[in-house]
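Q: Convert this sequence to structure tokens.
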Amino acid sequence: MTVPRKVNKAFLAIEQSEGAGARVRRSIGTPKLRNFSPFLMLDHFTIHPGAGFPDHPHRGQETITYLLKGAVDHEDFAGNAGTIYAGDLQFMTAGKGIMHAEMPNQGFDDIVGMQLWVDLPAKLKACEPRYRDLKADEIPTINVDDDKVTIKVISGQSHGTDSVQELAYTPVWLLDVEIKPGGSVTQALPAGWNAFAYTLEGTANFGVGKDKQSVGQYHNVVFEQEGDEVVVEVPAEAKQGARFILVAGLPLDQKVVQYGPFVLNSQQDVYQAMMDYQTHSNGFERASGWESKIGKSMVH
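A:
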């Protein structure tokens, strides 16, 4: 017998400034939801021309960027460069250290997307950095509940359909779900994993019976760890459908010490990361004198 997960809490992601002129709605990584292992941060970002995230370092985490509108260029100190477009994802493992820039492609006015930071297990924090891109047309899409529900299986499994491949070191499921009025979905999740939904459009009911909660746009819905599945519906009388991303991840049994873009397991490790970055050593050698080409595209 399956047990639906209850909603622990749901809260609005407040818009704030981040990077150089970018706007983000941050939910994970705020006082309302810190270190929801393995998740460190969730930003729903909007970038206008002349803004962006110029040259900056990372160590000790993975980032998953899901582009919803427009196109983003990326470039790093190892010579990796490319562009992701609406519907594409990029999985970046910072490992022992990377320095890169993420900037709006000049051919688009407004860029909208999601960026999720995922903790790396302690034994992988010193791994070599890497990128994996997942293009929109590579993502399996399924329809359930008489085509009233559409699910993009970005990572994980849904209704008998598996994602293309595992793209992150830390096990994470990521689904993009759209529900039309009158539609309902029951999605199984791995037992013991932490899970949340982020509402992109419309209003949906999360949970069942007396535990059901109606949640509007731009909210993070945090589920209880207990249970096998989540149930979401949009009432038939609703004027519009709803869209949300559903994310689940394997919790890591380790301490998190974070200072900006450095995510380690002790204060000493953070001090070491700052020293390594400043002295261009232990993974940051190539940061010495490096400047991205795309970072120079910013309007001053």
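The helical segments are 267-279.
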